[in-house]
Structure formats: C-alpha cells, structure tokens
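Data availability (excerpt). The following record was deposited with the supplementary files.
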Amino acid sequence: MAVIKGILSFNDLFVPKRINNNPGSAAKFQAVILLPPGDPQIQQIEQEYQLALAEGFGGILPHGAKSCWTLYEDRYRGKDYYDPKFNGCMVLSTTAAEDQPPHVVGADRQPITNKGATELQAGHYVWINFSMSKYEQGGGTGIGGWLNGIMTTGELGPFGSLSNKPSAEAMFAGVAGGPGPVGGSSAPASPAAPAGPGPAAPAAPSAPAAPAAPAGPVMTDKAEFTYEQYITAGWNDQQLITNGLMMPVSFQ
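Predicted structure:
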C-alpha cells in the first residue's frame, strides 16, 4: 500500500462504470493519475510495481498482459484524445470493485459526496492511497492498481484544467441575450400595435406532412451535456463513442 500526490486525469469516484459501457464488464470505480517527468514519487511507485511484478510473474510481465503503471505515450498514442504535451508523464490507473467504493475526502478528512466538486476536476492535485498486485479476470491478466481512497488538495497542477467540459462560450453559443447589458437595466419595449382590420387572405393549401426526422444520437449516462454542446466544443462522434459519452450507432 502506498500514498502519493499526483494529478487527477480521469475519475469515476461516485458511480461505478463499465468499461466502454460494455454490459459484459464489471462496474468499477476508478481514478487515473498523472505524474510529470522528474517527479520524485515515480521511483517510489516503480518500487511498488516491481515488487508486485516479482510476486505475480517472477519479475517479467508476460506478453499481452496489462499494466496499471505505464508511460503516457505507450498507453495512449493512437487514441483520438492522445496529446503529445503529456509525453514523458507516468500514468497510474487504479480501480475499486462496485461493492468496495473508495474513500473520497477533502483536506479536512471529511467525506465529499458531490461528484462536481471543483477540487475533483481533472488537472487538480490529489493524494491517492492505492496498492498493486497481479490479477486474472475475464481471460486477461496483468498488474492492477487498486484504489483505496482519494484526498483533495485544492491545487491545480502544472498542466492546468484537463476537464473535457465545454466552455461557457461553447455551451451558450447562439443564445440570445437580454434587452440590456449584463448587470445593467433598460426599459421594457412597448408592445407592438395590432394590425388594422383587412380582408382575410384565402387559406393556402396544406402541404403534405414531412417525414419524421430520425432519432438523434443517443448519449450515455456519463455525458454531462447534450450532443450539440459537445460538437460545438470541438468533439466528434468517434471521440464521444471512445470516451463512453455516446452509444455506438449499432446500439441506437
């Protein structure tokens, strides 16, 4: 068991989720932590990893086995959301079983129950208590990271916010403003005078009803915004599907 301070990259700390919303996978809580190049804690985690590797596989990870402790570029290169600015960072992936939720507390050690808490947004430093060991599940094997608890710090890491949440400008693009400037006031507009009486125009023949539009994209319960808001913020369909925010077309 170890305790280190790292940058929260991704988390499902309050509601366990299935990988890619696959009904066949087990629902888990999770937290993914980034450590910048040169962080002195990398050596500490490496020691934990090597110990688990020695106990589980005699010191050599088998071909095809997965690891919870990897270089960022080795884990994410080729993904839609890969960003070379994180190259050289180490990634620690941890999970907890659905029936063993992790402790999530603030710096005062009091429980946090709000998943929208600012200090739990991607890009913030947190303390994480975790362990490592060999696992065998669903025909797969590897060294897994097991999430015991998270404590917030309120500090933003060196990369700034990593949240995928659209900006306010993107969320409210095209929304009409009020009659006056923000924080100001103006008199309400006078109602328009009614049009004078005149001969009624003959009713135009009814056009045939247009066929119903097909159903729109189906978002998952992981999505915090509408499909249109994500698209406005620069996402594409494949990125939404890969991140588990939208159901694949074959399931809609």
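Summary of structural features: The first strand starts at residue 2 and ends at 17.
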